[in-house]
Amino acid sequence: MLTKVAIVGRPNVGKSALFNRLIGRKKAIVHKAPGTTRDRNDCEILWKDKKFIVTDTAGWSADISVFSRDMSRQLDVAIKESDIVLFVVDGKTGVHPMDGEIAHQIRLSRKKPILVANKIDTQAEEVRGYEFYKLGFGDVVFVSASHGRSTHDLLDKIWENIKYDRKVREPREILKIILAGKPNVGKSSFVNAVAKEERSIVCDVPGTTRDSFTVRVQSNGKEYVLTDTAGLHRGSKTKDDMEYLSTLSADYAVEDADVAVLIADASQGIGETEVKIARLLLEKRKPVIVAVNKWDLIEEKEEAAKYFTEQLRERMKFMNWADIIFISAKTGQRLDRIFQEAELVFKQYSKELTKEELNGVIRDALAEKPYASKGKALKLKEYAQVASKPPVFIFSVNDIELVHFSYKRFLENRLRARFGFYGTPIILKFRKYYKKAAEQ
Prior knowledge:
Strand content: 15-25%
Largest sheet: 6 strands, mixed
Radius of gyration: 26 Å
Oligomer: single chain
Structural class: alpha/beta
Distance between the termini: 62 Å
Strand order of the largest sheet: 2-3-1-4-5-6
Order of helices and strands: EHEEHEHEEHEHEEHEHEHEHHEEEEHE
């Protein structure tokens, strides 16, 4: 098992900024508003020769609001599950009364603490941070998450506290799955159901999940990295910078994912927002599974399944290769199947054809449907698969102007009919054929 490192502290001390700095990219939303981070956010880090998991947490709060209670509970669980606790304090404002309360809770947990004074931008400012020694944790690591100052020293400190485990085998490549969908369709409920614990705050208020957050889960004896995204709204509905940052955060998460699960609400159908998200996933060239959630609320299931499938094929013709699965995060219905399907889809996404396989299908396609325009025949001089994830094919033709979109679609359909490629986009590129010097 990898060592788990939890980042804790009161609101607005720079925990998410530090999280982003440690993992080397902007994964968590950073905002001045307290309470921006509401869920636990995991990411695996390799520093030197050791791997560990770092977890960003919500700010510790004494507020009695529903969100604050949920956030504090998430924080307590994160500390309980961690091996090392990074206790982050604000180096500019000094010791806060709440810092003492948090320090007491960390001592009770008996976990290895590392005290981190953030917002120390220069060496001269370190003098301010000496008052934090009275919290009773010994050494203080002075950093500036926003500027990257001394964060390597902090990583070294974490490294020193991780023991080598000679028995640990190199794990298999863990599949990274992202959940995408408009607010309130049940993405967070999906995460909680699979994780078998409350990893994400669930509320009827749209936009409860502000940040994309990651959690490791298990299904059918295999481990997966599951990312829940903030709800994506149409651009015209973006009213403030928080929602804009949420959408931007979702984009970062999509880039990093191996497979995307587009979740729709069974009571609402496939609407404009689902189509927009599907196009975004296609632009990112990601394999996609469509999951219709809240299926337990549907009575005439056979008729509804037929309706949803027809609706999907009609409104998302550009993604007719995606499978549709009817699930219920509330009852757990078919949640395991999502992971089974993700494994199959990723294999299609990674598929590489041999030269003989490609020659065979293209030769048959040309014999079945030769193409000509204005009396001139289209000739495919050379062709090859040049990449996977997604599969990319390049065709050298005699005249690029003869390549009509309908013939591109015909060739794509023939490739899919012969080799599957279900659940994944495939890219067909065409270029002008030029004779090699030896042929001229």
